[in-house]
Design a protein that fits this description.
By secondary structure, the chain is of the alpha/beta class. It is 47% helix and 10% strand. The protein has 2 domains: 151 residues, Rossmann fold (3-Layer(aba) Sandwich), CATH 3.40.50; 67 residues.
């Protein structure tokens, strides 16, 4: 593992240390939340704050930033939520093993350029460069560790072509960190490598009730047990649990989840397996 352990509260910043797991008032749109679960709040975890700070720095400097973490910890949500407060977001959508031509097509679409991307690389690049020069953008690349060396070279070309640089967010799972850091061009063009960690078991009773009101009546030990069995500190899995708990409450007409209901929800989510 290349990434250092979770930083201390002092390193995370005064806001995170003073008010851990605060809820952001300007709520993210429901489409950003996993399963679009009603009532989920924008929870300011230490990892989300770190990613937001790194993204703001990269945006101001026109540089790359790598956002790392295990599946389901909230990398994409953190990036999109922070980017909404900074500038125009250009999320790229392409196939599993993209070539530079796929990046051109994805940028052409994200920039809302007219028609289909030209087949000629030079013509496509002229349109993309002209559009990017009109103002700062935030290009977001999911599963960035899957990019080939030629794709990284294309992103370097776009970055270096612009006088103000280009903010490019590379989102990758923990196992992809080594391959990203092996790209030599990133060494001098990257503003930071924030890592989003799962919630610890001790953080769960504080964080999860802030994430959604449905958990506010559940005893801390029951929340820890659910986390140990199902979520393992990942906010995506807690979104799944919240979704199924809401459905169970609606079906039973109960006002709050009791231990039996939570047991049934856990059985539904993991197929009845026991830890």
């Amino acid at each position: 593992m290349l990434t250092t352990p979770p930083p201390s509260p002092a390193v995370r910043g005064a806001a995170a240390a003073a008010e851990p797991f605060a809820v952001r008032e300007d709520a993210a749109p429901p489409s950003l939340h996993y399963l679009q679960t009603p009532g989920l709040r924008t929870l300011l975890t230490p990892g989300m704050l770190a990613a937001g700070d790194a993204l703001a720095d990269a945006y101001a400097k026109g540089r790359f930033v790598g956002v790392l973490g295990a599946a389901g910890v909230g990398k994409t949500f953190a990036v999109h939520t922070a980017a909404r407060r900074l500038g125009e977001l250009l999320p790229l959508d392409f196939r599993a093993q993209p070539a530079p031509a796929d990046l051109r097509a994805a940028l052409h679409k994200a920039l809302k350029l007219r028609g289909e991307a030209p087949a000629d690389a030079g013509a496509a690049d002229t349109l993309i460069r002209r559009a990017l020069a009109q103002g700062p953008r935030i290009v977001v690349v999911e599963d960035a560790h899957r990019l080939s060396a030629s794709c990284f070279e294309y992103l370097r070309f776009l970055h270096d072509d612009l006088p103000q640089g280009l903010c490019v967010v590379l989102i990758a799972q923990a196992r992809g960190e080594r391959s990203l850091r092996a790209q030599r061009m990133l060494a001098t063009r990257t503003a930071g490598w924030p890592y989003i960690w799962p919630l610890t078991r001790d953080q769960v009773p504080q964080a999860v009730p802030a994430l959604h009101p449905v958990w506010q009546s559940v005893p801390p030990d029951d929340l820890r047990a659910l986390d140990a069995r199902i979520a393992d500190g990942t906010l995506r899995r807690w979104a799944v649990l919240t979704h199924h708990t809401q459905r169970a409450l609606a079906a039973t007409k109960a006002s709050t989840p009791d231990r039996d209901l939570l047991q049934a929800v856990a059985d539904r989510v993991d197929g009845g397996r026991r830890p």
